[in-house]
Amino acid sequence: MILDDVLRRRVLQVLSGQATGVPEYVQELSRGGDPGYFAEGGAVWTVHADIATLVAGPRALLMQALHPGAMAGVHDHSRYREDPLGRLVGTIRWITTVSFGSREQAEGASAWVRRLHEHVRGTYTGAEGEPVAYAAQDADLLTWVHLAFADSFLKAYLRFAARPVPGGPDAYVRDWAVAGELMGVPDPPRSVQQLDDRLDRIRASGILRADARVREAVRFIRRPPLPKPVAATYPALFAGAVETLPTWASSTLGLRRPTRAETAATALVLSSTRRLLGEAAAPGQARIRLRRLEAEAAGRATAD
How far is it, in rounded angstroms, from Cα 255 to Cα 203? Predict the structure, then answer.
């Protein structure tokens, strides 16, 4: 029990930035003034509350790194080497707020990220050695990041979660398109087929690649500086991330496909972590908001 408590604290520190209690930004989810963009118990709630997100995160980073513009933005402007956990917590905060918060909270969190991205711009070396300008707000980069995210979280859930996506995989892609729009993605995909088609078109364009910067990022994603108890289980999570990548992506990144034993270890680590952490706090805080709003609406109806 003591060992479980120590491990739980270390995991929570990595994921939320604090070892005990509910983070303030999660508590805020109970205080919003509207139901939010996504239905309680719907596709987005289910996928983003599941422990399979621990596989989806590194998978999304691996996919995003394949685009030289996205990789340049991370390389030139991110502090992922100096403060990887801080960057992780910031990303989780945005996902959590958009997924479970009110519309006002989701829009505020997305506006905050967009403001950070206003200064992310520069150049990278193109395939022919020419300088190519990029900006984080470019439509092609916004689209690639959204596609990589949606594909990663859906594929990780389908591979490692215990129950189907409510409404099916198309429901998740369709609903999460709202998050893309909040971030400025033009016409995000609204079905799995559209998602696959967009990924295929970008791959066919020839822009995706794995250069020295990407190889450096892959080494970091494979072995991030995590606390010892968490670091011991991370290789299994990374194996799950690679196993759910398209074969062409893992090949481009120079990553060996995991063995059955390695992916069995992924499932075991996820199952153990699910038992260790219990239910995610964010849906519970969101339900407090929803029940309050329902009670307020019922009170108004009675008064009328």
Answer: 18
Cα Rg of the chain, angstroms: 20
Q: Are 255 and 210 in contact (CB under 8 A)?
A: no
Query: How far apart are alpha carbons 123 and 97 in whole angstroms?
Result: 32
- Give the chain's domain count: 1
pLDDT higher than 90, residue 281: no
Is residue 282 domain-resident?
A: yes
Q: Is the pTM of this model over 0.85?
A: yes
Contact 234/240 with Cβ under 8 angstroms? no
Q: DSSP character for 79? A: -
- Asked if residue 29 belongs to a domain, the reply is no
Q: Are the C-beta atoms of residues 18 and 11 closer than 8 Å to each other?
A: no
Burial label, 297 (beta-carbon count in 10 A; 0-12, 13-18, 19+): exposed
Tokens linked to 1? 């029990």
Considering the domain boundaries, does residue 299 fall inside one? no
Question: What's the pLDDT tens digit per position in 111-159?
Answer: 999 999 999 999 999 888 899 999 999 999 999 999 999 999 999 999 9
Please state, in angstroms and as integers, the Cα–Cα distance from residue 268 to each residue in 52, 60, 95, 275, following that order. 11, 21, 25, 11
Range of the domain at 257: 2-19+38-293
Q: How far is CA 266 from CA 52, 55, 157, 231, 278, in A?
A: 10, 9, 13, 14, 18
Contact 96, 108 (CB under 8 A): no
3-state secondary structure of 51: coil
Is 300 among the domain residues?
no
Contact 104, 32 (CB under 8 A): yes
Q: Name the token pair of 287.
A: 């339900």
The answer to whether 48 and 42 are in contact (CB under 8 A) is: no
Spell out the SS3 assignment of 106-168. HHHHHHHHHHHHCCCEEEEECCCCCEEEEECCCHHHHHHHHHHHHHHHHHHHHHHCCCCCCCC
